Structure formats: structure tokens, C-alpha cells
């Protein structure tokens, strides 16, 4: 199998329609010489975190040699919450309107976890730790395979010329970057790094609007060794899709999504 085109996208954040639009643009079914690298942050902020994870997992199963999914910091934090003690519900308190939780559970399943039988109510009849325990247990029981798959995702993907990662790497280590980079840096590095490096680094994590002088959301290239592609899907309703062509070493960026959100 010869790969001629490599696509990258990142920071989907529970927005399934922009993801579907991006996958249609990439066209893995149509183009057997294309591969896709997803840079993480599948959950939080949007209404369809579970659907995004299910879709990405199915892609990895259908195209095991052509789809690579990496872990992002929001995915890591979600797993930390699931594995953490019942007294620590800081992640749950940060889940606005329980949007991420609701994507994993039906209204009735959530009501039962909250200690009642009213699917229309998010009120809890339980103390905080018990509620936290019940919600985590409901997700882990219903989605054990999906969560297990998420736990196994790598934090970095390296090719001969490129490094794909959610946030970044320890570039001060030069060619020894892989051994020198702690796990949390792969998913949480901030601020972004610019300039020359031994390989091209493709990352998400930091909104490109913070790098473009005009505040725009398109792919950001520093003119040297770094590309950043987090296009703030929760604001724009769209995803940046970066394509590298092996034949001539060129790159091209696209925007995928049904429409930009307003308001």
C-alpha cells in the first residue's frame, strides 16, 4: 500500500456534523491512497461527544492501516474523571448542562443515575459523591468497549518527515524529543512553538485565531516547521483539514462543515 495523501484534523469537541463533512472531504472510501490522522479532543463543548468517539473508533476499525487517532487533553481529562475518586467531581461540574454526559446516556439512564425516574429533570436526589459515582458507573457499564479503546490511543504519531501530536513536544531535546517529552506535554503543551525543527510538527490544541493577526480560524503555518489546525469548531461550526501530498511535498488546507454558526 502506497500512501500519496495524508490528511489531519483536530479538536472535534463533540461536533458530529463538521466531522462528517470532513470525512466526506477526505474520502477514505474513494481514495485508497489517502490516510487520516486525528489529533484528539473528541469530547466536551459540543452535544455529540459519544457519537464522535463512536465514529472515530469505527474509522480506526475499518481502516486500521490508514487511520490513526491520537489522544487529546480533553479526552485525557475525561478518562481521569472516570478513573478518579467519587469525591472529585470537578470535571463533572465543568460539563456545562451535562452536555458530554448526556451524549453517552439516554435521559432515563441519566435520571436513574441522578436518583429519580424523571427523564425531563437534571436535578439530583443524591449527594455529590454518590451522583458522581452513579454517572461514571453508568457510562463505564454502557460504553466499556468505547472507553477501553479510548484508553489505548497513542499520544503521538511519527513519520519519516512529520510529527503529529495534539499539543506539542519538547523541541529543546532536538532529535531526542520522543524520550524527553512527558505524556502531559503531548496533550497539554502551551504556548505553541514556532520556528525550525528536525521534523514538521502538526498540532491542534491552541486555537489558530490566537495566532493569526486578524483573528481568523484557518490553519496556521509559521512559515517553517509548524502547522496548527484547531479552528474553534465550537465557534465556527467547521473543522480545518490539512492535506499533505507525498508526490510533490506540498500542503493544502480546507475547511469542512455544514455552515458557520452565528450568534
The count of β-strands is 10
CATH architecture level-2 label of the largest domain:
4-Layer Sandwich
Instruction: Show unreliable segments.
Output: none
Number of helices: 11
Which secondary-structure class do the elements indicate? alpha/beta
**What oligomeric assembly is this protein in?**
single chain
Average pLDDT: 96
Report on this model:
- One of its GO terms (molecular function) is bis(5'-nucleosyl)-tetraphosphatase (symmetrical) activity.
- It comes from Brevibacterium sediminis.
- This is Serine/threonine protein phosphatase.
- There is one protein chain.
- With 263 residues, this protein is α/β, with parallel strands linked by helices.
- The protein folds into 2 domains: 170 residues, Purple Acid Phosphatase, chain A, domain 2 (4-Layer Sandwich), CATH 3.60.21.10; 69 residues, no CATH class.
- It contains 11 helices and 10 strands.
- It has a 5-stranded mixed β-sheet. A 5-stranded mixed β-sheet has the order 4-5-6-8-7.
- Strand 7 and strand 8 form a beta hairpin.
- Helix 6 packs across helix 7.
- The radius of gyration is 19 Å and the shape is globular.
- The protein starts with a strand and ends in a 7-residue tail after the last strand.
- The model has no long low-confidence stretch (mean pLDDT 96).
Amino acid at each position: 500500500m502506497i500512501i500519496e495523501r495524508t490528511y489531519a484534523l483536530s479538536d472535534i469537541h463533540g461536533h458530529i456534523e463538521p466531522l462528517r463533512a470532513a470525512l466526506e472531504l477526505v474520502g477514505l472510501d474513494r481514495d485508497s491512497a489517502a490516510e487520516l490522522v486525528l489529533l484528539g479532543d473528541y469530547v466536551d463543548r459540543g452535544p455529540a461527544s459519544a457519537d464522535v468517539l463512536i465514529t472515530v473508533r469505527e474509522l480506526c476499525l475499518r481502516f486500521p492501516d490508514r487511520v490513526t487517532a491520537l489522544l487529546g487533553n480533553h479526552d485525557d481529562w475525561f478518562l481521569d474523571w472516570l478513573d478518579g475518586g467519587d469525591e472529585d467531581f470537578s470535571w463533572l461540574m465543568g460539563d456545562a448542562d451535562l452536555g458530554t454526559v448526556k451524549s453517552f446516556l439516554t435521559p432515563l439512564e441519566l435520571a436513574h443515575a441522578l436518583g429519580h425516574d424523571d427523564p425531563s429533570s437534571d436535578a439530583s436526589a443524591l449527594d455529590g459523591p454518590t451522583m458522581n459515582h452513579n454517572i461514571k458507573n453508568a457510562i463505564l457499564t454502557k460504553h466499556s468497549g468505547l472507553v477501553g479503546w479510548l484508553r489505548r490511543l497513542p499520544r503521538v504519531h511519527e513519520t519519516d518527515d512529520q510529527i503529529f501530536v495534539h499539543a506539542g513536544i519538547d523541541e529543546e531535546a532536538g532529535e531526542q524529543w520522543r524520550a524527553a517529552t512527558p505524556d502531559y506535554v503531548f496533550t497539554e503543551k502551551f504556548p505553541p512553538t514556532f520556528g525550525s525543527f528536525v521534523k514538521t510538527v502538526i498540532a491542534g490544541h491552541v486555537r489558530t485565531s490566537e495566532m493569526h493577526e486578524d483573528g481568523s480560524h484557518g490553519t496556521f503555518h509559521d512559515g517553517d516547521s509548524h502547522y496548527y489546525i484547531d479552528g474553534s469548531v465550537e465557534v465556527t461550526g467547521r473543522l480545518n483539514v490539512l492535506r499533505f501530498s507525498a508526490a510533490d511535498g506540498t500542503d493544502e488546507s480546507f475547511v469542512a462543515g455544514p455552515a458557520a454558526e452565528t450568534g
